User: Which sequence fits this backbone?
C-alpha cells in the first residue's frame, strides 16, 4: 500500500533559516557601513594632504598661506578646492583654511575637514573621528578625543 507523504520544510526550519539570514545580513551591513565611513575618511585625509601641498606652493610664491572656505570670494582663495571629492554635492567633507591658533596666516595654516555639512553630502557623519585637521607644521588631529590613532 502506498502512503502519500508531503515533502517540504516545516515552519520551524523556515524560521531558523530566516533567523540565520537576518544575523548574517546585520553583520554584513555593519561591516559595509564601516567600510564606507573609512573610505570617505580616506577621501578627506587625501584632500587635506593635497591642499596642504597647494598651500605650501602658495607660501613659496607669496610668503604667506591663504585662508579659504566655500564662501571665499577672493581670486587667490578660489584657487583652493574647499570640498574633498570630485564635486561638492558628492563630497563627504567641507574644508576650511584658517590661521593656526595663536599664530598668523603668514606663519601657519590650519586645514579643517568638517564631515557632512550643508555644503557637501549632509548625510555623511563620522562619529569615530569627527573633524579632521592638519597644520602646516605637520600636526594631524581629530575633534574626538582619543581617536587620533584610529583616524590618522
Assistant:
Amino acid at each position: 500500500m502506498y502512503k502519500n507523504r508531503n515533502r517540504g520544510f516545516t515552519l520551524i526550519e523556515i524560521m531558523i533559516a530566516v533567523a540565520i539570514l537576518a544575523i548574517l545580513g546585520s553583520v554584513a551591513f555593519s561591516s559595509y557601513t564601516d567600510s564606507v565611513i573609512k573610505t570617505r575618511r580616506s577621501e578627506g585625509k587625501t584632500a587635506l594632504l593635497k591642499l596642504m601641498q597647494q598651500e605650501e606652493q602658495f607660501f613659496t610664491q607669496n610668503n604667506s598661506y591663504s585662508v579659504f572656505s566655500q564662501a571665499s570670494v577672493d581670486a587667490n582663495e578660489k584657487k583652493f578646492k574647499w570640498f574633498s571629492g570630485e564635486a561638492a554635492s558628492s563630497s563627504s567633507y567641507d574644508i576650511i583654511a584658517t590661521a593656526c591658533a595663536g599664530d598668523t596666516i603668514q606663519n601657519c595654516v590650519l586645514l579643517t575637514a568638517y564631515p557632512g555639512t550643508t555644503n557637501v553630502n549632509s548625510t555623511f557623519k563620522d562619529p569615530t573621528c569627527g573633524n579632521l585637521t592638519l597644520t602646516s607644521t605637520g600636526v594631524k588631529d581629530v575633534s574626538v578625543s582619543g581617536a587620533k590613532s584610529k583616524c590618522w
About this structure: The chain has a mean pLDDT of 93. Residues 67 and 98 are 5 Å apart (CA to CA).
